[in-house]
Specification:
Layout (H helix, E strand, L loop, with lengths): L6 H32 L7 H17 L2 H9 L8 H34 L6 H5 L4 H10 L4 H4 L16 H42 L5 H37 L4 H18 L2 H10 L3 H11 L6 H11 L13
Helix pairs in contact: 1-2, 1-3, 1-10, 1-11, 2-4, 2-11, 4-6, 4-8, 8-9, 9-10, 12-13
């Protein structure tokens, strides 16, 4: 059940993961370096703390890609070693969950800032303390429970197997728990993002005072969060649902192999999120972009204006969301 049904296709998946890893690792590492040594995020506003944790989650997730690529190149959907497989799933559940969580929290914060400016809310009170990020990481740990249970089989949820009835019941419970975690960590944040995005776009469009260029850019950026989230996460979620339906309904082995292959491919594509997050969330601010270029690509910076702007913004970068500055 963990063997790749079509080796050339899985080799292609492995190449895609290697390319994502090569491109995303230095990009995320440079942003991480900027926030630690240049911005000193712990002394800055809480939005920078959220962004730091978002990039940290992405860069930790990236370290799983070489292992996944190695498995695919050797004709395996997952490692034959159960310990390695469960460790990979632990990293995937924790860091992808953290990435989505910090994205969602940042979007909620931007929602209150744009739609309800000045209104007191719990998030605004909590975000003043950097410990909120630690709390979010700790709250995500229970989501990794299905990957640590003895009866859990990697890549094999609700797969019919011969065995004792009692073991089969326990396995079904564990598998169901894992699938609930998989779907809820994507569907619930997606609903929240849709709500926040729609209200933010409506608020920005009704705004009549201010720079129209900035307002148009803000609408474009806040809309792109939904586009990227939809492209990266929704397709693999739908593919997972189709795969489970085929398994539960005891469909033919051929259809199940095709569904599993499509799911693995869309999961591979979803790792593009690690590459897109820094580009969208970090560079949505012209000030952050200027600071990044002045530190890592100074030959691209023209004149002293951008340099002075970037140095001025080092202590307080605008919120790292696609809604940018308004």
């Amino acid at each position: 059940y963990y063997s790749a049904s079509n080796q050339p296709v899985y080799t292609f998946y492995a190449v895609i993961m290697i390319i994502i890893f090569i491109l995303a690792l230095p990009l995320n590492a440079s942003v991480l370096h900027l926030f630690i040594f240049k911005l000193k995020f712990w002394k800055s506003n809480s939005n920078n703390v959220f962004l730091f944790n978002l990039v940290l989650a992405d860069i930790l997730l990236l370290f799983c890609l070489p292992v996944k690529a190695h498995n695919f190149l050797h004709g395996e959907r997952r490692s034959a070693d159960d310990k390695v497989c469960k460790a990979m799933l632990f990293m995937l559940f924790l860091n992808r969950g953290a990435s989505i969580a910090f994205l969602t929290v940042t979007s909620i914060d931007r929602y209150f800032n744009v739609v309800h400016p000045g209104r007191k809310n719990l998030l605004r009170a909590l975000k003043k303390s950097p410990q909120i990020s630690i709390i979010i990481w700790l709250l995500l740990l229970p989501l990794t429970i299905p990957t640590m249970l003895k009866n859990f089989e990697c890549c094999n949820s609700h797969k019919s197997e011969d065995g004792e009835q009692e073991d089969a019941v326990i396995k079904d419970v564990v598998d169901s728990l894992r699938e609930v975690v998989f779907f809820t960590q994507i569907i619930i944040p997606f609903i929240i993002l849709v709500y926040c995005t729609v209200h933010i776009v409506n608020r920005l469009r009704k705004k009549t005072i201010g720079d129209k260029t900035k307002l148009k850019r803000a609408v474009f950026l806040v809309t792109s969060v939904m586009v990227v989230f939809s492209i990266c996460f929704l397709p693999c979620t739908i593919a997972r649902m189709v795969l489970l339906i085929i398994r539960v309904s005891h469909g033919s082995e051929r259809y199940e192999d095709i569904a599993a292959m499509v799911f693995d491919g869309l999961m591979t594509f979803s790792y593009m999120d690690c590459l897109l997050d820094p580009l969208v969330y970090c560079f949505c601010s012209t000030k952050f972009k200027a600071l990044y270029l002045s530190n890592y690509f100074p030959f691209l910076v023209k004149g002293d204006t951008v340099l002075s702007e970037s140095s001025h913004s080092a202590g307080n970068v605008p919120p790292p969301t696609r809604s940018t500055v308004i």
